[in-house]
Amino acid sequence: MNSISNFNSLLVPPSGGGGGKVSVIGAGTMGNGIAHVFAQSGFAVNLIDVNPTQLQRALTTIEKNIDRQIAKGAVTEEQKKQTLKNITSVTDIAEGVKNAQLVVEAATENIDLKLSIFKQMDIAAPADCILATNTSSISITKIAAITKRPELVIGMHFMNPVPVMKLVEIINGYATKKEVTQTIVELSKQLGKIPCAVNDYPGFIANRILMPMINEAIYSLYEGVAGVEEIDTVMKLGMAHPMGPLQLADFIGLDVCLSILKVLQDGFGNPKYAPCPLLVNMVMAGKLGVKSGEGFYVYAAGSKDLVVSERFKK
């Protein structure tokens, strides 16, 4: 099968007759969400993670998220059964990608880890398989360069939570073929998403604009211009943002924000992207936001109340 016919058959999920074989590497928050939307759209999905416990946790999360969709009338019990049936758990990368037409890597945002996974993907996946990464900031061109198929490598940056958020930021590497981009654009539409194609420069578009805003909000707090609630309230009520930049930073993870700002600073060599010292200190102190239970706000299990951390109370 040549590449073009492979791309075309990828756009036909199994229920439509052949094709549609997708592998997702990484069963964390992003990976299980990506597997969820592909499986719900009728694709046969191999969800791959070396940790069997993480795989089981991911399947439980997917089932709970589908139950929320059922409660809202978005899907039926029969669709839930079919979605879960479409997902196969796999603990070995080579085994999980050997028949794939598309592999989406959704591992932790760590360049060394991603390069290692892509080397394994490149060896084990069929020669005409598209290799995508869910990275939010790491260069697609750099990742593609360690493979023997840089023209088939592309960024597919989903937003969290994946089943809810409509945007997919599609990032072209230096060598990405137009046919690959067109395929991923059409595929994203099949998932019910809205694709936006951009080019491979530090931070792409989403984080190149978002992270300096978050960083400036942290600087405003650091310099005593306003408090946590005030900063977030101004942006929510004045700029119609669904959540303020400090709450959003907590949701993303302050360690992730710091990592992306460093990518921007290194990539452009511009001091305007330098992370605020307060952000650096919070990450060193382990105050990472929602994932650690405390960032700019405190997060108690089972509570939806937004409570400012004692560190920032006036």
Structural write-up:
By secondary structure, this protein is an alpha/beta fold. 47% of the residues lie in helices and 14% in strands. It has helices at residues 3-10, 29-40, 52-71, 77-85, 93-97, 111-124, 140-145, 178-190, 206-222, 228-239, 245-252, 254-268, 277-284, and strands spanning 21-25, 44-48, 87-90, 102-105, 130-133, 153-158, 167-172, 194-199, 297-298, 307-308. A hairpin with an 8-residue loop joins strand 9 (297-298) and strand 10 (307-308). Helix 1 packs parallel to helix 8, helix 2 (29-40) packs across helix 3 and helix 9 packs across helix 12. It is globular.
Layout of helices and strands, plus pairs?
Elements: H1 3-10, E1 21-25, H2 29-40, E2 44-48, H3 52-71, H4 77-85, E3 87-90, H5 93-97, E4 102-105, H6 111-124, E5 130-133, H7 140-145, E6 153-158, E7 167-172, H8 178-190, E8 194-199, H9 206-222, H10 228-239, H11 245-252, H12 254-268, H13 277-284, E9 297-298, E10 307-308
Parallel strand pairs: 1-2, 1-4, 2-3, 4-5, 5-6, 7-8
Antiparallel strand pairs: 6-7, 9-10
Helix pairs in contact: 1-8, 2-3, 9-11, 9-12
Summarize the structure.
47% of the residues lie in helices and 14% in strands.
Which whole number gives the mean pLDDT?
94
What is the makeup of the main sheet? Answer: 8 strands, mixed
Radius of gyration: 20 Å
> In order across it, which strands form the biggest sheet?
3-2-1-4-5-6-7-8
Kindly state the number of beta strands: 10
Query: What is the ordering of alpha helices and beta strands?
Result: HEHEHHEHEHEHEEHEHHHHHEE
* Cα end-to-end separation: 65 Å
Shape: globular
**SS-derived structural category:** alpha/beta
- Relative helix content: 40-55%
Ranges where pLDDT stays below 50 over 5 or more residues in a row are none
Q: How big a fraction of the residues is strand?
A: 5-15%
Total DSSP helices: 13
